[in-house]
From TrEMBL:
GO cellular component terms given for this protein: transcription factor TFIIE complex
Xref: InterPro entries: TFIIE-bsu (IPR016656), TFIIE_bsu_DNA-bd (IPR003166), WH-like_DNA-bd_sf (IPR036388), WH_DNA-bd_sf (IPR036390)
GO BP annotations listed: transcription initiation at RNA polymerase II promoter
PANTHER family in the record: TRANSCRIPTION INITIATION FACTOR IIE SUBUNIT BETA, TRANSCRIPTION INITIATION FACTOR IIE, BETA SUBUNIT
Domain of life: Eukaryota
GO molecular function: TFIIH-class transcription factor complex binding
Protein name as catalogued: TFIIE beta domain-containing protein
Annotated ranges, domain TFIIE beta: 70-151
Classification lineage: Eukaryota, Metazoa, Ecdysozoa, Arthropoda, Crustacea
Protein species of origin: Scylla paramamosain (Mud crab)
Length: 252
C-alpha cells in the first residue's frame, strides 16, 4: 500500500501532514529539527501514533519521525485497527480456515506489525472480547464468530430445514453473505429450487426459507387469473358470504 502524506502550510520548524488512517484522515503534528511543542508532550501515551506495516494493512505507516495524533484521530485509528483484525478473521473463515489464532499470530498475519502497548491492551481486554463477530476461546485464541453456522450449500439447506421444522422462519441473505463471502452467488444458484426467497417490505431485505415440496399444488393459470380478479366491496364478509359469491361466479 502506498503511503499518503500531503504537506500543507505550517510554521517554521514544524510540518503538518495528512496521515491516512483507515477510511479517515487525521492531522498529525510532526516535530523535527530539534523543535519541541509544549502543548503535546512526547511521553503522552494517549497521543502516541500507531506504527504498522503499510504494505499489508489499511493503516498508514510513518517511520522517519515521531507521530502525535489528537484524541479523536487516535480513537478512529484504534477502531480502524479493530476493523482490520475482524476483517482478517472473517476472510479466513470464509476461506474455510478453521485455525484459531493467538493475538500475536493474528495481528502479524493481518499486517499490524507494531502496535503500541495501549492499543494492544484495548484490543485484548475490551474491543475483541466484546465484539459480536469475534469468539475468544480458552487459552486466548481468536476466531471469527459467524451470524449463522454455515460454510456452504449443504449446511445452509440443513439449517433451513431445522428452522422450518421448529417454526423459526428463515435467514437473511445478508447473514449468508457474511458467512460464505464471495461464494454466496454460486451457493444461491445451487439452492434456488430448494428454497423460497421473500423480500421483507419493511426494509427490503431478502429472507430465505425452506421450500416444502409436499405442499406444492398444481393450479391452472386460468383459475389463478380469475381468483386474482375477484374483489369484495365489504371487508366484513363472512365465510358464507364468500362461498355464495364464488358459487355465483362459478368457481365453487
Amino acid at each position: 500500500m502506498k503511503e499518503d502524506f500531503d504537506p500543507v502550510v505550517s510554521p517554521p520548524g514544524r510540518k503538518i501532514v495528512i496521515v491516512r488512517c483507515g477510511a479517515s484522515w487525521t492531522l498529525a503534528l510532526l516535530l523535527f529539527l530539534g523543535t519541541k511543542n509544549p502543548h503535546i508532550p512526547p511521553s503522552s501515551p494517549s497521543l502516541c501514533g500507531l506504527l504498522v506495516d503499510a504494505r499489508s494493512s489499511s493503516i498508514a505507516q510513518y517511520k522517519t519521525c515521531p507521530k502525535y495524533i489528537h484524541q479523536n484521530g487516535y480513537s478512529r485509528c484504534k477502531f480502524s485497527v479493530l476493523r482490520t483484525v475482524v476483517d482478517f478473521l472473517k476472510m479466513r473463515y470464509q476461506e474455510k480456515d478453521t485455525e484459531h489464532y493467538t493475538f500475536e499470530e493474528m495481528t502479524e498475519k493481518a499486517g499490524l506489525l507494531h502496535l503500541n502497548a495501549e492499543v494492544k491492551e484495548w484490543l485484548v481486554k475490551e474491543a475483541l472480547p466484546h465484539n459480536l463477530k469475534v469468539e475468544v476461546t480458552e487459552g486466548m485464541y481468536y476466531l471469527f464468530k459467524p451470524p449463522l453456522p454455515i460454510t456452504g450449500r449443504h449446511s445452509l439447506l440443513r439449517l433451513l430445514r431445522q428452522k422450518y421444522k421448529k417454526g423459526l422462519g428463515g435467514v437473511m441473505l445478508s447473514d449468508v453473505q457474511e458467512c460464505v463471502g464471495p461464494r454466496w452467488k454460486k451457493i444461491m444458484r445451487q439452492v434456488e429450487r430448494e428454497v423460497l426467497q421473500v423480500v421483507r417490505k419493511a426494509d427490503r431485505k431478502l429472507i430465505i426459507f425452506h421450500k416444502d415440496k409436499s405442499l406444492s399444488l398444481s393450479v391452472s393459470e386460468e383459475l389463478v387469473r380469475v381468483w386474482r380478479g375477484l374483489s369484495f366491496s365489504d371487508s366484513n364478509k363472512t365465510d358464507e358470504d364468500i362461498e355464495t359469491y364464488l358459487l355465483q361466479e362459478g368457481l365453487f
